Amino acid sequence: MSLIFDSHAHYYSQVFEEDRDELLVRMHEQDGVKAILCPAENLCSSAACVGLAEKYDFIYAAAGVHPNYADIWTDDTAESLSALLDRERVVAAGEMGLDYYRRDDNRETQKRVFAAQLELAAEKKLPAVIHDREAHGDMYDMLRYYRPEGVMHCFSGSVELAREALNLGLYIGLGGSVTALNAVKPVEVAKYVPLDRLVLETDAPYLIPRPYRTAPEKYKRSESWMIRYVAEFIAELRNTDPELLLDTAARNAARLYRVEL
Ligand SMILES: [Zn+2]
Questions:
Q1: Residue 62 in this model has a pLDDT that exceeds 90
Q2: DSSP structural state of residue 124
Q3: What's the CA gap between 73 and 4, in Å, rounded?
């Protein structure tokens, strides 16, 4: 059985409250989930990610402020985040970025908070976990300026934007949204991304891959083992072996986050 590296999953989420430990241990011991990167949304979840990573040796943490929380940013936030990024189990900064879908009225704040975190990531020599939703113009201006290393998580742009991200040296993260019935651009991107720059993710608990959304087995949250289906789906699009895709994506994620697999 090939190995799964879930490059983006929020296991501190409330929806895992009842069975988090049981689920994580089972996926690791029985379902081939070799490693998980847990990215944060704010200072509180950053600390929670570090806690999970300190508890489980197969979980790694990222610390950061998601654009949905950009308004909470102060000088104190920057200082606390800087300290969290120095923690041993923290292998990336994020998630961070721009989200003009959720909010369009605080663009300047979002850009300022993203810029501050890109600078922190560079200072700490950590890869950035980047969220870009309906903000491509400003996003790529900033990426061209700051030149971070990292990953465009849950990539939602066109093939042209994927080419630009790849030219900037970034990895492309794909997950459940590729399998949606109305997915067009993600499918084109999934066919296009060079195999050595693709990482797989659930964005758990969100973005449940298609077959698990519907009866008879209905899931209300995505879980890392579901990446096996995403790999099969993408492998079929690319006419390649799903096991090879899974293995390569896991090795890519280990290289991206600089962890041993
Ligand atoms: Zn996320």
A1: yes
A2: H
A3: 34
Give the architecture (CATH level 2) of 4-257: Alpha-Beta Barrel (3.20)
* Ligand 1 center to 130 CA (angstroms): 9
Distance 50 CA to ligand 1 centre (A): 16
How far is the centre of ligand 1, averaged over its atoms, from the C-alpha of 94 (Å)? Answer: 9
Query: Nearest CA to 62 among 73, 70, 71, 53?
Result: 53
User: What Å distances lie between residue 162 and 7, 112, 140, 224, 230, CA to CA?
Assistant: 18, 24, 11, 24, 19
pLDDT at 180 over 90: no
Question: Distance from the CA of 205 to the center of ligand 1, in angstroms?
Answer: 9
Which of 172, 169, 164, 183 lies closest to 237, judged by CA?
183
Structural domain spans, the chain: 4-257
Predicted model pTM: 0.96
pLDDT tens by residue, 200-235: 999 999 888 888 887 666 788 999 999 999 999 999
